[in-house]
Amino acid sequence: MRRVAKDTLTAIEMNRGEVEEFELTSGRVIRIELLDVWARLLRTTLKKLKVEEEGARTDYAFGCVLRIEGREYALEREVSTQRSFYDPWEIAGARIWLDAVADIFDFLLETHGECRPRKDARFAIQDASIRICPERLHPWCPLPPGGLKIENCYRGEDCWLGAYNGASAHGGLDINHPRGTPLLAPLDIHDHFYFNSLEMGHNNNRWRGIHRWRNGSEWIIQAHHMTSLTVPEHKPLKKGEQFALGAGVFVGAIEHSHFVFKIHDYGETIPLDPWILFQQMYRDLE
């Protein structure tokens, strides 16, 4: 498939052997081929894989091999360690985030939010000369000083794809903060609403906001465990406007908010690591 770099991030999924052609803003087209993917356990406290145990811990690594413009590149990630908060690779004029590989589900479940790639691997990609979006992002919540720390993601495991209770890939990014912490729009939100709520009979308050870019891409962001909305549903929000109080419903052992990021483009919706947004938020404060 061929895609053209937009002024916003592009999400792609690939199978082994597939080729993606990506046109940079200069007009140059780079050829990206997925050669292989892999995943392996680093350590686990589970008695049996894929069986959750309260407070269990599983750390793992995954990676892929890409052929880009005729050269091979090995990309490797760790999850549920501090290395979960990683920098993208810059290769041949493109910035590439390795988001997930399907092989991690050889030893993980998907019972804690949508996160499994539909193909062998999932990536985010952008022209290396431009930002992930054309405007600065406002902090979604008060940002922890000095950057995100894995120990502040619920019990130290619930980053994106972290192994919740040692066994289930975590479909979001948890940030610990007290009940009632203000949640703020990181960019203008054109529509927003609860898609789950206590009032509707669910066990959580889960919110979704949508930003529609002029280039046709939509960013979908979500926040879960919210105490309450502070503005009416469907009312457009300005960047930086408070829309909720967080960390108050079904939070489990530690008060926290759960953040989700998805991109809808090219007729499909693809979830990505919210860390990509939070890293940009930190940089936009500099």
Model description:
The protein has 286 residues and is mainly β. The protein folds into two domains: 2-127, no CATH class; 150-285, Glucose Permease (Domain IIA), CATH 2.70.70. It is 4% helix and 43% strand. The chain contains one helix and 21 strands. The strands form five sheets. Strands 13, 15, 16, 17, 20 and 21 form a six-stranded antiparallel beta sheet that branches. Strands 1-3-4-5-6 form a five-stranded mixed beta sheet, with no helix packed on it. It has a four-stranded antiparallel beta sheet with strand order 2-10-8-7, with no helix packed on it. A hairpin with a 2-residue loop joins strand 5 and strand 6. The chain starts with a strand and ends with a helix. The mean pLDDT is 98.
> Rounded to an integer, what's the Rg over CA atoms?
19 Å
Q: What average pLDDT do the residues reach?
A: 98
Low-confidence stretches: none
What can be said about the biggest beta sheet?
6 strands, antiparallel
Count the beta strands: 21
**First-residue to last-residue Cα separation:** 37 Å
> Can you identify the CATH superfamily of the largest domain?
Glucose Permease (Domain IIA)
Shape: globular
Please count the helical segments: 1
Short description:
The chain is mainly beta and about 290 residues long.
Task: Please specify the SSE layout and strand pairing.
Blueprint: E1 2-4, E2 10-14, E3 19-23, E4 29-44, E5 58-68, E6 71-79, E7 89-91, E8 94-101, E9 109-112, E10 121-127, E11 163-164, E12 168-170, E13 173-176, E14 182-184, E15 191-196, E16 206-212, E17 218-224, E18 228-229, E19 242-245, E20 256-265, E21 268-272, H1 275-285
Parallel strand pairs: 1-3, 9-12
Antiparallel strand pairs: 2-10, 3-4, 4-5, 5-6, 7-8, 8-10, 11-12, 13-20, 14-19, 15-16, 16-17, 17-20, 18-19, 20-21
